UniProtKB/TrEMBL annotation:
Domain of life: Bacteria
Signal peptide region: none
Domain Argininosuccinate lyase C-terminal: 364-431
Protein known as: Argininosuccinate lyase
UniProt keyword annotations, A-Z: Amino-acid biosynthesis, Arginine biosynthesis, Cytoplasm, Lyase
Gene (UniProt): argH
Lineage start: Bacteria, Bacillati, Bacillota, Bacilli, Bacillales
Entry coiled-coil feature ranges: none
One GO cellular component, as annotated: cytosol
Amino acid sequence: MSKLWGGRFTKETNKLVEEFTASISFDQKLAIEDIEGSLAHVQMLGACNIIPLEDAETIKEGLLSIKEQVEKGEIEFSIEHEDIHMNIEKLLIDNIGPVGGKLHTGRSRNDQVATDMHLYLKNKTKEIIQLVQDVQHSILTQAKVNIDTLIPGYTHLQRAQPVSFAHHLMAYFWMFERDKERLQDSLKRVNWLPLGAGALAGTTFPIDRAKVAKQLGFETIYPNSMDAVSDRDFIVEFLSIGALIMTHISRLSEELVIWSSQEFQFIELDDSFCTGSSIMPQKKNPDVPELLRAKTGRTYGNLIGLLTVLKGLPLAYNKDMQEDKEGMFDTVETLEGSLQLLAPMIETMTVKKEIMRKALNQDFSNATDIADYLVTKGLPFRDAHEVIGKIVLYSIQNGKYLLDLSLDEYQQFSALFESDIYVILSPEHVVSARNSYGGTSPFQVKEQIKLAEETLFIKSK
Ligand code: ARG
């Protein structure tokens, strides 16, 4: 019987059961975290005289040498030992002899696996915050050179009012800023230490959890051992923030796909971020934003998957919880891959300023401004809205835009019109007139960019 838990068994495990229950194929990603956790645990066992100091030292050396082998990729894990925890313990015992069997004193795989996951997410969350920040920098780079670039602003994907292209891009900056804040806040809860909870009820040994927490860099210790081994909220939280980040990436990607189409031609993605068609030689496809949009789906799946795993589980640990890992790894890897591509793709895209500007000569997105014009001349907004609606209808019927109408034509609709009407109709004027805080005027956009830079600077300090 070579299983670490083989004592009470009289038969070999069915091969299919062994394969079905094993997690080593995926939880080997936690090898380093598992060893870090064990190192802290064993040093505490020695310091608290729970095992002799020299045994703790021998185990520590053994673990460090396994860690080195893992880092060099020299270890082949085996399905026979089910998961990363038992694989490493088995390696340790094989390497240093029976004294290795003292490592698991006062500990269970239940508090061990929870600790590994906390350590893993702690590192990954910090890394992802940095990657989100890289995307923010690339948005800022484009925004700063496009403050005066005008683009139609849309609602219902219908032309609404012209805006600064920088203003449009900066909307995403703030979405990502909130995402970073969420990740940062979630770290508070990732920073709880489960180790020392034992299987579910604590341990009979005089352990020192504070010492372990200090060594592993945890700020809080789970005050309830049953909660410690069965809490997966911190993973749900990460998956939910991850899904939201991908939602933001997906919305931006959708815009990039639309803007780079033949119909819009507002931007061109760099050749190095596009692919061709195997049959149509003229094609340059925006595969990257399309895939970013699509990969959002799997992160929603990972979130719903884990919520569903947890919803009916009684306390404390249940094997169901082993299913928390693959979705978590997948969301981490999806975020890493997506954010790493998004930043350079935004930075290298070409903004076709003239085409954007030309588009504005052929729409009615200055209509609100004539309404506002009549309002400043004393007409109630509702009446002004009605008058301009009629003017727009008249223009469409006569194949004209608002700048093409003569003063005579305007005055047929309202005697309040004077020749200054033409000044306020240019898209440049329409944009710069929206000078309220958070608005799209060049002045406000510059202020916004200043604030964004300060925000990045302060937070990266
Ligand atoms: N591989 C297991 C998991 O990921 C480790 C914990 C196993 N605990 C147990 N009592 N079977 O959840």
